[in-house]
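ARCHIVE CARD
Drawer: 12
Card no.: 0347
Subject: one protein chain, sequence and derived structure
Cross-reference: see card 0346
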Amino acid sequence: MRQRSLIAITAALAAGALTLTACGSRDSGDKGSDSGNGDGTTVVIGVDAPLTGDLSAMGLGIKNSADLAVRNANKKEFVKGVTFKIEALDDQAQPSAGQQNASKFVSEQEVLGVVGPLNSSVAESMQKVFDDNKLVEVSPANTGPALTQGADWQKKKVRPYKSYFRTSTTDAIQGPFAAQYVYNTAKKKKVFVIDDKKTYGSGLAATFTEEFKKLGGKVVGTEHINPDAKDFSAVATKVKNSGAEVVYYGGEYPQAGPLSKQIKAAGAKIPLVGGDGIKDDTFMKLAGAEATGDLATSVGAPVEDLPSAKQFVADYKAAGYKEEYSAYGGYAYDSAWAIIEAVKKVVDANGGKLPTGARAKVTEAMQSVSFDGVTGKVSFDEYGDATNKQLTVYAVKNGAWVPVKSGTYTG
């Protein structure tokens, strides 16, 4: 850690700008990222994700995978003289909590980058806070197009925040990719579209619907659900009476699982299709045995099938994390490693030392970061979007998500 006077430390503590986590203390889940380069400079990488609540399976996978990247960087002494640590904060999938976490991260001068969040709606609340303070943010999971391309992205793309990047592809591609599979491969022509009214879910449903109609499909019904609800019997009845051959759901697995189960219980024995937000093993637990045949798209290719991910999978297992790396583990590792690469660029350009004004320099360096990551080639386009735009369709078979088709959207 850089030296400070006693007065400066006292002032920082009073302002909440120095935390025990930044100095080396952390919860048990972060053990291991202490190993590194001794008494040199400490760089903290923040992690924002839902660590509790319905989406914690994905959030904890993000946290653990970012931690693993830090462990490996320290073990390799990837940036000479720099020890990396993580500080993980729980946003509970709530925008207000995410904004508070963003403010906390920017108040801590050792934090030079943040991995996260999971939810696009949470990202919306954090982006300006980070950008105003030149603190780079790399999400492994956000797919809302407006985050990088502006609110009117369908008409004119304008990047709103230069400090925001992501390693996952967007719903501008994911929704249409799903529509092409449903219409052309699964041969379903009539769809009932449901979303949870959140940024991610409604955006994904909209891009799916547009492409499905363009292909010649018919939307026989639409519905919005409360993301806090558990009883979907009314909408399940509407689906049954609509004559739909498939349901497309824009949202996440805590609602998608019960929704699928209740639709089938109502007598509509048709598949539910969703995006990466439903692709978690918890979906099958909630949906029950009749989830067989349900579909989900997800960013990239299955980590288990990628030669580039073999070391990550082995290292994750060896590290002994209690939770699975889940859908975004590989992308979280790559997001953290992108920050590490950007820090290395800045340190190397300054004669082996972290310069003053490091945050702005790390943010600037991120634009040119390029490396072979867990999920493949990692680099960013002029909007901060991932250049890797591969997607995969998964189907529920024998109680597990099984990949059935990988590729890119051909629009």
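Annotation on reverse: Residues 1-39 have pLDDT under 50 and may be disordered. The radius of gyration is 21 Å.
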